[in-house]
Design goal:
This protein has two helices and six strands, in the order ααββββββ. The protein is of the alpha+beta class.
Length: 152
């Protein structure tokens, strides 16, 4: 059996490749590169301004130290507050029972303090809050602290 020779397939024309996959991309021009560079620079400067202003805004943080329950109607919470010495703050303190239900709640005012009060140049101060409870509590914690709007 003999077979006839088949002609070799021809290579596709360059125009058909360009139609299928798209033509060659041309390089960015000088004006386009400068515009992209300028936009990136503006975004970078805006980001740095945002970071510097957000770090300068006043903030407050807290750390629970311990608690005690002297009797069924009182819980005491010891905690640290870290803030700028001249700034007032408020902290919410709660007492919990064995089922984690809130049995006592109190908002404690933390006033401004002198730079020599507490540690870290007056930034860190220790506080004790007494919370009245409706039943025996098994723990007491600080729920959160914030800077009141009037002292900003």
């Amino acid at each position: 059996m003999t077979s006839e020779e088949q002609p070799a397939p021809t290579a596709p024309a360059p125009t058909s490749l360009a139609n299928r996959y798209g033509g060659q991309q041309r390089a960015l021009g000088r004006k386009a590169r400068r515009a992209i560079l300028a936009a990136g620079l503006v975004v970078g400067i805006g980001f740095l301004a945002w970071v510097s202003t957000s770090a300068a805004s006043e903030s407050v943080s807290f750390k629970d130290i311990g608690y005690s329950t002297p009797d069924a109607t009182v819980a005491e919470v010891d905690f640290q507050v870290i803030k700028n010495p001249g700034t007032a703050a408020k902290c919410a303190v709660k007492a919990l029972d064995s089922k984690f239900a809130v049995v006592g709640w109190k908002v404690v005012d933390i006033g401004p303090n002198a730079a020599d009060a507490g540690a870290d140049g007056g930034r860190t101060t220790v506080h004790r809050a007494t919370v009245r409870t409706e039943s025996q509590s098994v723990s007491a914690v600080v729920d959160g602290c914030w800077i009141p709007a009037a002292s900003k």
